[in-house]
Specification:
Lipoprotein, single chain
Length: about 170
């Protein structure tokens, strides 16, 4: 009897372990080909850029050069997202592949335009941007950060992008 019970418990444990949810399910694949993809989770919900009828381009990336400094700018919009309608990533003094801690004073920040009445712009005060590829016009990477709006913390996790720069 004990052997049967133990066997049953092992089977239940294996089935339960196999049914764990994939936290990356529904996100864009992690590519490095300039596929023009962007996705993340905002408080556990998937965010992807979405074209609005007659609206601006929902996703773009570009490098601006001024006074000898490069700035990487990435913008992703989805006006129907319940939390954030635009994520605007800025890396001042962009050097290419590497990890960039989000430090506003260093010019590394993420502006988030929230789907709430004005004032609706918040800056991320903590997080990391990681560039995994920068070659020619292709830039790919990952990110995670937190934004606070009033007393609400908005967690942006599992972020990834793969862009062909303008």
């Amino acid at each position: 009897m004990k052997t049967k019970l133990l066997g049953l418990l092992v089977i239940v444990a294996v089935i339960t372990g196999a049914c764990k949810k994939d936290p990356e399910k529904g996100l864009t694949p992690p590519t490095q080909s300039g596929a023009n993809t962007f996705s993340c989770k905002i408080n556990g919900q998937i965010f992807m850029p979405k074209q609005e009828l007659f609206g601006p381009t929902p996703l773009y990336g570009q490098i601006e050069t001024s006074n000898g400094y490069k700035t990487l700018i990435i913008s992703a919009s989805n006006p129907s997202d319940p939390f954030i309608k635009n994520i605007y990533i800025n890396i001042f003094d962009f050097k290419g592949i590497g990890t960039y801690p989000i430090v506003i004073a260093d010019g590394v920040y993420v502006d988030c335009y929230l789907n709430v009445p004005a004032p609706n712009q918040e800056k991320s005060r903590s997080g990391t941007l990681k560039i995994t590829k920068y070659e020619g016009k292709i830039v790919s990477g990952t990110f995670e950060f937190n934004v606070t709006h009033g007393t609400e913390n908005i967690a942006v996790t599992l972020g990834r992008f793969d862009l062909t720069l303008r």
